[in-house]
Specification:
Layout (H helix, E strand, L loop, with lengths): L1 H14 L3 H17 L4 H6 L5 H10 L4 E2 L9 H6 L3 E4 L2 E4 L1 E5 L5 E5 L19 H9 L5 E7 L5 H6 L3 E8 L2 H13 L5 E5 L11 E6 L22 H9 L4 E16 L4 H10 L4 E10 L1 H11 L8 H14 L2 E12 L8 E5 L12 H13 L2 H6 L2 E3 L3 E6 L9 E6 L6 E4 L1 H9 L6 H12 L3 H17 L3 E3 L3
Parallel strand pairs: 6-7, 6-9, 7-8, 9-10, 11-13
Antiparallel strand pairs: 1-3, 2-3, 4-5, 10-12, 11-12, 14-18, 15-16, 16-17
Helix pairs in contact: 11-12, 13-17, 16-17
């Protein structure tokens, strides 16, 4: 099989079946439509005898192609013997969805389902999509020893871990997922992956990892109908248990990064719910809510995901799911990131926040700095903070808002143009510090100078300033200079 996959990859590269090649072949209109799961423009763009267009129709769009249009060198008989295509009446049809990925590799999954297609099989293996890309963008770029991809699905996270991790273990509860993931890895030239079947951490008892990543079956539903998205656990218990169990499998200094859904329940604060999960781990934790949907939106999303809109069971499934949410007093469902770090501290820090705006990608390029800011700000004493040398974040802007002609602004806002792109309303002292601190002088004499200019009592300013600055350091507006 590896020889077949190697030859197929070589053909793909020679033909231009890559991310860039597909975009160029389809053009902006068809590529954008395909991102919305609308294949008609792409089918029109790939008509004709162009070998690349034929590969796109066969492997990505799932359309049957004439054997006579097959690119020279496509091993049709071997692919059929391997179960990757069928040949009937002079037409070739793929049995899998096979697409190039941004790493330069390839991802193999079950064919995409669209309205009118047969119902999903229970062990359906979904392809790489938005959630896969989100997790890949979040994961730290630090090289690691051992990495675990928990719930590997079609194996896409391994493509991102390859070259960064010395050893990769990948698990999934679905044996069919592992079969297709092996094809993804083989077609991408990745050979050394330890694939194991099982739920949660059952396949790795007693083992520890420097990095754990997971795009788990986080969908919250009344029943686990599809293993690729639903665990069968009650409500959001699967994500909760994943967070609680992860620290047992982290090596000292190790990090766990995952996607999750959580419930918003009437009369409860969702931040307390998710923060409670993290607080029980003994690790430093950072949870970010990126989106929240009302129950009806959520149900519609996942019924559409399974191409169940317009089917005879649509209303029944919709009502059952919505009724189940109502019985649990669910007001919304949050989606976001969770990061844990086993820092070894006896004073772990947990931060839970909402970031619904665009952030700089990849977050993994600076996520370690974010965690360092959150934990460092919390653990600094007031005396240590007054002796620290602060520097403003790169690209930080100051906005002053007030009536035209007013002597003083009614509001001063610091805004980040890089990283997480947070904004914070500040007072005149913080704004003044942002203008003068450059990492060269300790905070204490800078505050004394600001007190002299503003007429404030220096001792009062020293007593009040650390609380507000600690928050701005945690949020990355100021960094503690070590140079």
């Amino acid at each position: 099989m590896n020889d077949l996959l190697d030859r197929l990859r070589e053909l793909f590269l020679d033909t231009g079946y890559t991310i860039d090649g597909v975009r160029e072949c389809l053009g902006d209109v068809a590529a954008t439509a395909l991102s919305r799961e609308e294949p008609v423009p792409a089918l029109r763009a790939t008509e004709g005898d162009d070998p690349l267009g034929t590969l796109i129709r066969l492997w990505w769009l799932g359309a049957a192609v004439d054997v006579r249009r097959a690119p020279r060198g496509l091993p049709v008989e071997e692919l059929a013997a391997a179960g990757l295509v069928t040949v009937e009446g002079g037409r070739i049809t793929s049995t899998v969805h096979l697409q190039p990925w941004e790493t330069g590799g390839y991802v193999v999954s079950d064919r995409k389902v669209r309205p009118g297609d047969p119902a999903l099989r229970a062990d359906h293996v979904v392809g790489a999509g938005g959630a896969s890309a989100n997790l890949a963008q979040l994961v730290s770029r630090r090289p690691v020893g051992r990495a675990l991809d928990l719930g590997t699905g079609c194996g896409v996270q391994v493509l991102h871990l390859d070259g960064r991790a010395e050893e990769i273990v990948a698990t999934d509860v679905n044996p069919r997922a592992l079969d297709l993931a092996r094809l993804s890895w083989g077609l991408s030239g990745i050979r050394e992956v330890d694939a194991r079947q099982g739920s949660l951490f059952d396949p790795v008892p007693g083992e520890r990892f420097d990095l754990i990543v997971s795009n788990p079956p986080f969908v919250i539903s009344p029943a686990g109908r599809f293993s690729y998205r639903e665990s069968g656990f009650q409500a959001d218990d699967f994500c909760r248990d994943l967070v609680r169990l992860a620290p047992r499998h982290l090596a000292p200094g190790g990090t766990c990064q995952l996607l999750a859904n959580w419930l918003h329940v009437g009369g409860e604060d969702w931040q307390d719910r998710v923060g409670g999960w993290l607080a029980e781990t003994g690790c430093d934790g950072w949870a970010v809510q990126r989106d929240v949907q009302d129950p009806a939106e959520y149900v519609e999303l996942w019924l559409r995901d399974a191409a169940e809109q317009g089917t005879p069971r649509y209303r029944e499934l919709y009502e059952d799911w919505l009724g189940w949410f109502e019985s649990a007093n669910v007001t919304g469902i949050g989606f976001g990131w969770i990061t844990l770090n086993d820092s070894g501290s006896l004073d772990p820090v947990v931060r839970v926040e909402e970031l619904g705006h665009r952030v700089e990608l990849p977050v993994g390029g600076y996520v370690d700095e974010v965690l360092g800011s959150i934990t460092g700000a919390h653990r600094l004493t007031d005396a240590e903070l007054l002796g620290a040398r602060l520097a403003p974040a790169d690209g930080m802007l100051e906005e002053r808002i007030g009536p035209p002609g007013a002597e003083d602004p009614s509001r001063i806002v610091l805004r980040q143009t890089r990283g997480l792109r947070r904004s914070a309303q500040v007072g005149t002292v913080e704004a003044a510090l942002a203008g003068v601190c450059d990492g060269q002088y300790p905070l204490d004499p800078l505050l004394a100078a600001i007190a002299e200019l503003t007429g404030e009592d220096p001792d009062d300013l020293r007593a009040k300033a650390p609380e507000g600055l600690r928050s701005l350091i945690a949020e990355g507006f100021f960094h503690i200079s070590t140079g």
